[in-house]
Amino acid sequence: MLTFVGLGLFDAEDITLKGLRAVREADAVYIEMYTSTLAGATIKDLEGLYQRDIIPLKREDIEEKPFFLDDAINKNIVLLSGGDPMVSTTHVDLRLRAKRMNIPTRIVHAPSISSAVCGLTGLQNYRFGRSATIPFPYVLEEKRIVYDTPYHVILENLKNGLHTLLYLDIAKKMMCASEGVSLLLEVAESHSDYAFREMLGVVVGQAGSPEPLVRAMYLKKIVKLDSEKTPQVVIVPAKLHFMEAEALVEFASAPKRILNNST
């Protein structure tokens, strides 16, 4: 059997009791930390609390050659990941591979940033549209390429009155909100969209920690935001319900003028 166990948002204590039981009863425990990571715990911290050896996996071990699936045919194998396991499409693909090999799978859910942002900001969960990831730029034929997909996702969601949750790249290093929003504004201005910088954004960092970062400000100001509370996400809200606006003012230090534009 292959059991996917979510580790939650911040540290070793975010795992559920059901997840901890699965870890302690497993024949082998693996972890991948490229789709999500824990700011408040190292693998050694997890091993100390869970009383198990944990084997770290590389990206290719998950996406290209998941060697541990062969062991899961006859053994109980656990795969740990940050947040909730099935938020990542990578893990859905892995579960499908297991299914084709007739390997039973099980999911032990845990807190996810996609639900935590609603509680921390007061934004209503049913008003979120398609999410997107802001990746670091890359160089192609000596030309710097900045992805424009997140910008277009925001515009599409805004047309439908929906908020946009933006994940920030952690492939090379942890991208912070100021970096991500700088890239967004760069794309917007390449489309002559200079009003984009005046839109409201919400930054959430280290969700699940005792003192998470929750700040609402205009995108042009997020560019100057200096905070080490990573990992971070950015939300670009649509037109706000009056209760959402009040929550952002009270819980995220949003400018009070947003109360005048809510419905």
Total strand count, please? 12
> In what order do the strands lie side by side in the largest sheet?
3-2-4-1-5
Number of separate helices:
10
Secondary-structure-based class equals: alpha/beta
Note poorly predicted spans: none
Biggest β-sheet description: 5 strands, parallel
For this structure, the CATH topology of the largest domain is Methyltransferase, Cobalt-precorrin-4 Transmethylase, Domain 2
How many domains make up the coordinates?
2
Main CATH class of the largest domain: Alpha Beta
Could you spell the SSE succession in H and E letters?
EHEHEHHEHEHEEEHEHEEHEH
Instruction: Please give the radius of gyration in angstroms.
Output: 20 Å
| The CATH H-level homologous superfamily of the largest domain | Tetrapyrrole methylase, C-terminal domain
Average pLDDT = 95
Task: Report how far the terminal alpha carbons are from each other.
Answer: 50 Å
Tell me the strand percentage band: 15-25%
- How much helical structure, as a percent, in the residues? 25-40%
What do these coordinates show?
The protein has 10 helices and 12 strands. By secondary structure, it is α/β, with parallel strands linked by helices. It folds into 2 domains: 2-111, Tetrapyrrole methylase, N-terminal domain (Cobalt-precorrin-4 Transmethylase, domain 1); 114-261, Tetrapyrrole methylase, C-terminal domain (Methyltransferase, Cobalt-precorrin-4 Transmethylase, Domain 2), CATH 3.30.950. Helix 2 (43-50) links the parallel strand 2 and strand 3. It has helices spanning 17-25, 43-50, 59-63, 68-72, 89-100, 113-121, 149-159, 177-190, 219-222, 242-252; strands at 2-6, 28-31, 55-56, 77-81, 105-108, 132-134, 138-140, 143-145, 164-168, 200-205, 213-218, 232-236. 33% of the residues lie in helices and 19% in strands. The model has no long low-confidence stretch (mean pLDDT 95). A 5-stranded parallel beta sheet has the order 3-2-4-1-5, with helices on both faces.
